[in-house]
Amino acid sequence: ADFCPTGAGVLAAFSNQAVCIFDAGTSTCAQTLPAASSSLVTAKFSPSGRSVLTATIDGTIKVFDSKTAECQRSFSAGSRCPLVSAVFSPDGALILTASGSGEDEVHLFEAASGTRRLTFQPRCGRLVQGALFSPGGRRVLVIFEEQAALFDTTTGVCVRTVL
Questions:
Q1: Distance between the two ends of the chain, CA-based, in angstroms?
Q2: Is a pLDDT exceeding 80 seen at residue 15?
Q3: Cys bridge to 144: 10, 21, 126, 133, which one at CB 3.0-4.6 A?
């Protein structure tokens, strides 16, 4: 579930893989996104509220127009492991994905094209549990079992590890 940053809607993902955008004023489903073909990991509004990101466990990333429910782009996270999280950057220009269970992979994509910009290489031998942007979008925090690492979004270099 996610609130639209504009306050106009609420996003809800259901066990049947359907995603509904509810009108906050009337509590009715204003838009239904096409059901995912695999188990949903997340559904999130972009910071502007104009787009919705969905991600499935098999690594399929889709970006929809929140008003029309039209799929604007679809791409693969390119991971060999199950996807565990996907989020927009604070400015909505990037999408961060994290996969775990084996070879941990964290990727940064251009939201407009789905082009991979950067791959973070945690290589700490611990299961990735998620990843998120700092408020300014200049850093990425990757969360592992009992550890976290902070990466620079321009260089991909780990700038700090917290045990």
A1: 30
A2: no
A3: 126
To the question of pTM greater than 0.90 for the whole model, the response is yes
pLDDT (0 to 100) of residue 92: 97
Cβ contacts of 146 within 8 Å, gap of 6 or more: 126, 163
- Kindly report, residue by residue over 91-131, the tens digit of the pLDDT: 999 999 998 765 668 899 999 999 999 988 766 666 788 89
Q: What is the number of other CB atoms lying within 10 angstroms of the CB of residue 138?
A: 12
What mean pLDDT do residues 124-153 have?
Answer: 87
Q: Which of 113, 58, 65 is nearest to 86 (CA)?
A: 58
What beta strand segments (E) does the chain contain?
2-3, 9-13, 19-23, 29-33, 40-45, 51-56, 60-65, 71-76, 83-88, 94-99, 105-110, 116-120, 128-133, 139-144, 147-152, 158-162
Across-strand partners of 56? 40
d(CA 72, CA 111): 10
pLDDT at 102: 58
- Spell out the residues 6+ positions from residue 102 whose beta carbon is closer than 8 angstroms to its own: 80, 81
- Measure the CA–CA gap between 43 and 154, rounded to whole angstroms: 26
